[in-house]
Design goal:
Blueprint: E1 4-6, H1 10-21, E2 26-28, E3 35-39, H2 43-53, E4 62-64, H3 80-89, E5 94-99, E6 114-118, H4 123-132, E7 136-137, H5 152-159, E8 165-167, E9 179-183, E10 188-193, H6 199-202, E11 208-211, E12 240-245, H7 248-257, E13 263-267, E14 279-281, H8 286-302, E15 307-311, H9 319-329, E16 334-336
Parallel strand pairs: 1-8, 2-8, 4-6, 5-9, 10-11, 12-15, 12-16, 13-14, 13-15
Antiparallel strand pairs: 2-3, 3-7, 4-7, 5-6, 9-10
Helix pairs in contact: 1-4, 8-9
Magnesium ion (MG) binds next to loops.
């Protein structure tokens, strides 16, 4: 199967919507990263997503709706707090886990009796949902374990011949996947995956926001986790990633004493004036770092990097999402100087 590259226009969006209605899988731009979308209620279509990605069957898919009011059709109970959060953050990069109903098959929910609901703000994703009339199950559009794609080109590199089509909607805005939360009580939520909707933002609506332990810590084999995605190797390019928490001078000496063929660095914008080795930069603040991180990890592979020393980002605000992705890309290998 040849994968069609579609454009961001109404005819192509209608065509993509028809493919989805017919049970096919389409790469779709969203404001977070590119997703691989299929009809969330069609078991065969959803099975095609898992096959295209090589995704473990117990890792559930997020279900995307064009409006939060549609959530009643796919869930069996919606907490009041979810309505308040939706009012403030939907459409946007927030996924809320709720009990599912029978319209979400077990393949979609990875065998769980819950479903993650998100209302994306990207006009293309929004239009594909509306035109298809489907709730769209969509994980990130990478092969399982690789960095999430933030451009149509990188979706094609992973998915060419594996999905029906990809819509080119340009570079993703946020660059990291949605914030995933579950409900702990009437007034408290737990962050299972950090994203652009930060703990501080959630605290504008919730009394308490718990950061799950697995966000910054390695999960022991066989341990029980709140979100199956926490168990798996994630976001890793081919190169070996080493995170370094240090001042710039110490980072420069560390790279210098380990320098050789295939060694690269990923540094902050502004570091380069004092940096004598091969490098790419990934922004000056947390939002820029979120925007560029996955793109840079893929570019480093394209450049033939074998070992990459990365300056560790701040873990504050949106930085928590960047830190969480990087520490997984690094397989929890962190050097602190
Ligand atoms: P991705 O599809 O690549 O954006 O990853 C989705 C993430 O959301 C994974 O880490 C999943 O484990 C998590 N997730 C999706 N649905 C649920 C659910 N019902 N319960 C817990 N975690 C979920
Ligand atoms: Mg993913």
């Amino acid at each position: 199967m040849e994968t069609l590259l579609l454009k961001n226009n109404i005819d192509d969006i209608r065509y993509a919507a028809k493919l989805i209605k017919d049970g096919q899988v389409v790469g779709i731009p969203t404001e977070t990263v590119y997703g691989l979308g299929a009809d969330a209620s069609n078991e065969e279509a959803v099975a095609r997503i898992f096959a295209a990605k090589g995704r473990p069957a117990d890792n559930p898919l997020i279900v995307h709706l064009s409006d939060f009011s549609d959530a009643v059709n796919y869930t069996s109970a919606i907490p009041d707090l979810a309505h308040s959060l939706a009012e403030r953050f939907c459409p946007g990069p927030l996924t809320m886990i709720m009990p599912k109903n029978e319209r979400i098959p077990m393949v979609t929910s990875g065998g769980l009796d819950t479903v993650g609901i998100r209302v994306p703000s990207h006009p293309v994703m929004h239009a594909v949902i509306e035109q298809s009339g489907c709730a769209i199950a969509a994980p990130s559009a990478n092969r399982s374990g690789s960095p999430s794609p933030t451009s149509a080109e990188y979706v094609l590199r992973d998915m060419n011949g594996r999905v029906a089509a990809v819509i080119d909607g340009g570079q993703s805005e946020f660059g990291v996947e949605s914030t995933v939360i579950s409900f702990e009580s009437d007034d408290a939520v737990r962050i299972l995956r950090p994203g652009a909707i930060t703990r501080e933002m959630l605290l504008e609506v919730c009394g308490e926001v718990i950061i799950d332990h697995a966000i910054l810590n390695e999960v022991a084999e066989g341990a029980k986790v709140a979100s199956p995605g926490m168990k798996y190797k994630h976001y890793a390019p081919k190169a070996d990633i080493i995170m370094v928490e240090s001042r710039l001078e110490d980072f420069v000496s560390l790279v210098g004493s380990n320098y050789g063929e295939g060694v690269y660095a990923l540094i902050f914008d502004g570091d380069e004036t004092d940096f004598p080795y091969r490098y790419l930069t990934y922004g000056a603040d947390s939002s820029e770092q979120a925007h560029w991180l996955f793109q840079r990890l893929r570019e480093l592979d394209d450049m033939g990097a074998e070992k990459v020393y990365v300056r560790a980002p701040s873990a504050e605000g949106v930085g928590l999402a960047v830190y969480n992705r990087l520490i997984r890309a690094a397989g929890f290998e962190v050097i602190r100087i």
